[in-house]
Each structure stands twice: as C-alpha cells, then as structure tokens.
C-alpha cells in the first residue's frame, strides 16, 4: 500500500500540488479497489499487476490534465453519486449552494419545478431527492447530456420528466411551474485565458461560454420563459457570473420580477439570484 501511494505521488508531483495529489490518491485507490480508503489502509489488498496497470492508465490521463471525474466517470453532488463524461459539465460545489438556497425557501409538498440546461441532471436530481413529492422537469439542448441525466435520475431513484429543448427557440408551454432554476452558460469568451487547462480542454464549451457582446442572452431568454411559465408568485433561481450580478438583477427588475435578491457563495462571490413573479 505504501509503495502504491508513493508511486502515485512521485508520478504526479511535477504536475499537481501536494494537496491535490492527496485527493487523487484517495479517489484512485477507492476506485481501483472498490473499497473505502480507510478500509484499504487498515486491510490492504494484494495489488496485482493488473491493478498497477489500471493505476498507471489513470496517472497517464491525469498527466494530460484530464479531470479525475471524467477518468473514473463519477463524482458526488449534494451527497449523491453522479455519472459524468465529457458530454456534461462536472457539477461544482457552488451549485450545491444554489440547491441549498432553493430547498431552504421551498418546503411545501408537491411543488412543480423546471431545471433549464440540466446537463448531468445534478440540480434536478438533488432537488427531486430532497423535496417532498416535487414534480420535476428538466430541459437540455444536448441529447448526449440528456442521456447522462436520465442515467443519473435512475441511479438515484428519482422520477424526472426530461425534454430536449433549445431555449433560444421554441419551448413547451403546456405546463406551469412553481420554481424555475437554471445554471446556464455564463463564462465570457474573454475569460478563457484565465481558466484551468483541464476545463478548457475537456469540458463542453457550449455549456460554459457566451460571447462578450451578449453575455446575458440566456438570462434574458430564461427570464422571459419564466414570465410565461411560472405560477403566480412562482420563483426563478439563477447561478450567475460573479461579475454580472448587478446587471442580471437589473434585467429581472426591468422585466417586472419582485423580491429580486443577489446572494454570495461561500467564497464571498456574487453567485446566485432569486426572483419572484408578481401575483
């Protein structure tokens, strides 16, 4: 076991900081052995040549800065397991805070909810799992992303209605919702140079980037959809670009939403907006 840990550290020390390597070590060993890390430490298995080969394959991919979540095709979000691949963004901790905000403000049973741009299904699944008898729908433009979301819904035993919808075009109007939530593309094209290599080279750009000259196009469009599809006093929730908080608030107020509130994440960055439809 000690040799395996040393091998992982020595292989990656030229590529990653020590703190990140420690996390990789735990994830790799749990993935390879299919056992909790502490259990492996207490009762180490025999690391066969086949297991060593599997570890080396993972290490070689990490040296190319491929995200560990894509390599092992799994991650955790809001305490739930999720399958991920390169067709979906890896769910971020900041988005867990958005889920927490929605849960804290919506405790009624049987609420109807729409997640726009669902990706892996992380928001929709987490809300369906933690709200009482919520009626959850989720849209995405990507068939491949929807395949992932459906897998995650089934794996977490949630009942979600998925639909392939391009929100910049026509959209279904046959349902009304008490809650609409979206974490749409919001990273500016000009911000690419500030991003980590593992994000730029591996995560889907259509789910990340918007043109600098129309940075809030999805927020404007989804706000219009919400005006049409929310029930009276229904709520709209967004995750946002930290630099666009005031602009997004102004857009929602101009469109007639009330109780528009901008919230910060744990890093003290503007990250979430909540608004209410007039009754």
Automatic annotation (TrEMBL):
<keyword id="KW-0808">Transferase</keyword>
<dbReference type="GO" id="GO:0003676">
    <property type="term" value="F:nucleic acid binding"/>
</dbReference>
<keyword id="KW-0949">S-adenosyl-L-methionine</keyword>
<keyword id="KW-0489">Methyltransferase</keyword>
<dbReference type="Pfam" id="PF05175">
    <property type="entry name" value="MTS"/>
</dbReference>
<feature type="domain" description="Methyltransferase small">
    <location>
        <begin position="109"/>
        <end position="193"/>
    </location>
</feature>
<dbReference type="InterPro" id="IPR050320">
    <property type="entry name" value="N5-glutamine_MTase"/>
</dbReference>
<dbReference type="InterPro" id="IPR002052">
    <property type="entry name" value="DNA_methylase_N6_adenine_CS"/>
</dbReference>
<dbReference type="InterPro" id="IPR007848">
    <property type="entry name" value="Small_mtfrase_dom"/>
</dbReference>
<dbReference type="GO" id="GO:0102559">
    <property type="term" value="F:peptide chain release factor N(5)-glutamine methyltransferase activity"/>
</dbReference>
<dbReference type="InterPro" id="IPR019874">
    <property type="entry name" value="RF_methyltr_PrmC"/>
</dbReference>
<protein>
    <recommendedName>
        <fullName>peptide chain release factor N(5)-glutamine methyltransferase</fullName>
        <ecNumber>2.1.1.297</ecNumber>
    </recommendedName>
</protein>
<dbReference type="InterPro" id="IPR004556">
    <property type="entry name" value="HemK-like"/>
</dbReference>
<dbReference type="GO" id="GO:0032259">
    <property type="term" value="P:methylation"/>
</dbReference>
<dbReference type="InterPro" id="IPR029063">
    <property type="entry name" value="SAM-dependent_MTases_sf"/>
</dbReference>
């Amino acid at each position: 076991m000690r040799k395996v840990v040393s091998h992982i550290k020595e292989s990656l020390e030229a590529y990653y900081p020590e703190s990140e390597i420690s996390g990789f070590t735990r994830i790799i060993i749990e993935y390879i052995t299919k056992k909790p890390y502490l259990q492996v430490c207490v009762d180490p298995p025999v690391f066969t040549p086949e297991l060593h080969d599997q570890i080396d394959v993972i290490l070689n991919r990490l040296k190319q800065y491929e995200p560990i979540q894509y390599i092992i095709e799994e991650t955790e979000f809001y305490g739930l397991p999720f399958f991920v691949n390169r067709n979906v963004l890896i769910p971020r901790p900041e988005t867990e805070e958005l889920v927490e905000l929605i849960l804290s403000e919506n405790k009624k049973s049987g609420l109807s909810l729409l997640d726009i741009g669902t990706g892996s299904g992380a928001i929709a699944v987490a809300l369906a799992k933690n709200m009482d008898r919520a009626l959850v729908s989720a849209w995405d433009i990507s068939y491949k992303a929807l395949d992932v979301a459906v897998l995650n819904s089934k794996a977490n035993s949630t009942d979600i209605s998925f639909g392939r919808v391009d929100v910049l075009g026509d959209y279904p109007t046959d349902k009304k919702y008490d809650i609409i939530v979206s974490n749409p593309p919001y990273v500016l094209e000009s911000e690419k140079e500030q991003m980590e290599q593992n994000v730029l080279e591996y995560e889907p750009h259509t789910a990340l980037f918007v043109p600098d000259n129309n940075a809030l196009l999805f927020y404007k469009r989804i706000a219009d959809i919400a005006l049409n599809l929310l029930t009276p006093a229904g709520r709209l929730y967004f995750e946002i670009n930290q630099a666009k908080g005031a602009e997004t608030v102004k857009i929602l107020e101009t469109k007639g939403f009330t109780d528009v509130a901008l919230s910060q994440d744990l890093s003290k960055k503007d990250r979430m907006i909540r608004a209410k439809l007039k009754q």
